[in-house]
Amino acid sequence: MSTFSVLIVEDQARFSEAFVHSLADVSDVHLLGVAVDLHQGRRMFDQGRPDVLLVDLDLPGGNGIELIRHAAHVRPQCEVMVISVFGDEQHVMASIEAGATGYLLKDDLALDLPSQLRSLRAGGSPISPIIARRLLMRLAPAAGHLASELAQLSDEDAVALSEQESRVLHLAAKGFTFDEIAHFLQVSPHTVMTYVKRVYRKLHVRSKVEAIYEARRLGWLRD
Questions:
Q1: Whole-angstrom Cα distance, residue 67 to residue 163?
Q2: What is the pLDDT of residues 14-69, one digit of tens each?
Q3: Which fold has domain 131-217?
Q4: How is the chain split into domains, by residue range?
Q5: pTM
Q6: What architecture does CATH give domain 4-127?
């Protein structure tokens, strides 16, 4: 199991101590340190160049979203996990648009933090269930619109995707794993893979990366 480094940016001692305790003695996690404000967080990020940034949004000296944007710009390979008390759409979408790849509420701290970070490093997008539901509600109209656009294409251009197929493709493009998509859509992983195989067949591709690339090339998905 490969080791990865983590920087925590959190100003409230009870939370930062909980994070440190959760990651202590975890063999594959190297904790670089804890920053208590935006300025210190940026300095420690630039010096330590972490693999994972664990960041709160409400920080002394500014908003954590500023640090997320900075991380995405100077070290795009760094995964960003937001842990916040804010679960509203505005904060969630702003964080994701800035470059966050995971978002957990502080109410969910009973979750196994090391496992969540490993999932993040493996390409997953750990997210609190209540936030996932809100995202699905937001994405559903977009997925329906995508299906409508595809249905209008001629047979020479492409075979229309079903609403569920386009929804799976849209969520996959957002970075969710197939298991997470199955959980969000309340279907089995086998059902999701069935949709995925249909999408691959219709787009004439063999992988998720190719499917997303091809859909974006055709203008069916937008960043």
A1: 36
A2: 999 999 999 998 999 999 999 999 999 999 999 999 999 999 999 999 999 999 99
A3: Arc Repressor Mutant, subunit A (1.10.10)
A4: 4-127, 131-217
A5: 0.64
A6: 3-Layer(aba) Sandwich (3.40)
